[in-house]
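Hey Z.,

So I finally got round to the UFG thing we talked about over coffee. Here's the setup:
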Amino acid sequence: MSRILVTGGAGYIGSHTVVELIGEGYEVVIIDDLSNSQADVIDHIEEITGKRVPLHVFDLCDKSRLDQFFGSEGSLDGIIHFAAKKAVGESVEKPLLYYHVNILSLINLLKAQKEYDIPNFVFSSSCTVYGQPDKLPVSEETPRKDAESPYGNTKKISEDIIRDFARVNDDKRTIALRYFNPVGAHESGLIGELPSGIPNNLMPFISQTAIGLRDQLKVFGGDYPTKDGSAVRDYIHVVDLAKAHVVSMQRLIEDQQKSNYEFFNLGTGSGLTVLEVIRAFEEVNDVKIKYEIVDRRAGDVVQIYADTAYANDELGWRTERDLDDMVRTAWKWEQHLAQMRE
Ligand code: UFG
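And the result:
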């Protein structure tokens, strides 16, 4: 049985990936500093899978603590690295924090990968590396652009670090996964996104408005050159995204790569406007979302969606969940959170 370390495994995408890994027979161990997640996620993962996953709570920037972990952990077949800071706006306010945490934790992990001879590494990247692309849809051949935020730049720099590391370590295999917009939650309603404070992202803001935690949603921009004037994104269900990590790890373990550093776009291939997402949420869940259209948000791209051909062909992976599944599970999760608060 392959053993996988999942950093950030208590977080949103991490916890869903842990569930899918266990479902495919992997043994999992988590490192998470719980800076943007909660320890009871482990209970919920156990409820879903019947497996208790070991959780080690520490900061990956602490290399001596990381050495202590690897020194006592026994052999591991791979690492899936999610742990990172991810709020675009906060990264503009606190660039050094973002560069410090996201880059140092990656460097520490790559050093450990070499020192403790762990062959396989899956990295959590983002379509933010493409900026506003000149041509749509975005394929893996699409050139990367200057990042719009320090957060986006940490993803770009991280990819470069991994590429350069791979060049001189041909016994180490890596896949970077460039996510489009992950939304939704596990079908059980037991795990999902846990935004701290006011959500920055669209779907949690919609569901918090629906449940009454927010008065109204602001739709950023109604005058974009799109079909209804609101911005277009490629929303992907978090469980489909999680499954892509399992398939990628499998590809690494079976040594099926074309080169020892590969990257893939993970999206559905369809662009949806903000208003389309709101409408679907209302219709599928039979709730009303109060919203107003306001000015564009600084740094937002007009539209972006993925060309999924390369991931489909090479990984043998495709998305199976549609917009209805996304808004339905997002609402189920929001209702679960409301019950927890009672
Ligand atoms: N939006 C609103 N109102 C809100 C929140 C969002 O109208 O309250 C809009 C945004 O303007 C955008 C769309 O909904 O048009 C999606 O916004 P999100 O914040 O959910 O997602 P982004 O596309 O801005 O950001 C995502 C990831 C980032 C990543 C970026 C790359 O969250 O990590 O894609 O484009 F950097």
